[in-house]
């Protein structure tokens, strides 16, 4: 066995090629950041998912335009941002959905939370 470590980024991109893993990854980022788009973490996460599942399916020009669109939509304010993000994710075969927030005090019979982001058949 080698003591060499595996570079993190290529391993993360390989994992993100699985749409279900990408969904779980983005869901975790969205929940942790609670909508704070200015930290750069969300932008990085979206770019990583794009690198894994979007970029391989686009020409270089299409990929550049799609990333430029991401940068533009993340710099917007207001309601247009959520719709633009939903459209951006849709191009990757993902969709943005709303979920019921789980409360630690919920009874066992309550409805469990739905995934925030789920794979969509486009």
Distance between the termini: 43 Å
Q: Please state the overall shape, judged from the principal axes of the Cα atoms.
A: globular
Q: Fraction of residues in helices?
A: 40-55%
DSSP summary: helix tally: 5
Report the portion of residues in β strands.
under 5%
Give the count of structural domains: 1
- Strand order of the main beta sheet, please? 1-2
Gyration radius (Cα, Å) is 16 Å
Strand segment count: 2
Order of helices and strands: HHHHHEE
Low-confidence stretches: 105-122
What about the largest sheet?
2 strands, antiparallel
Q: Name the structural class.
A: mainly alpha
**Whole-number average pLDDT?**
77
Topology overview:
Elements: H1 8-16, H2 19-33, H3 41-54, H4 60-74, H5 79-90, E1 94-96, E2 117-119
Antiparallel strand pairs: 1-2
What does this structure look like?
There is one protein chain. This protein has about 120 residues and is mainly alpha-helical. It is built from five helices and two strands, in the order αααααββ. It has helices at about 10-15, 20-35, 40-55, 60-75, 80-90, and strands at about 95, 115-120. A two-stranded antiparallel ribbon has the order 1-2. The longest helix is centred in the N-terminal third of the chain and has 15 residues, at about 20-35. It is globular.
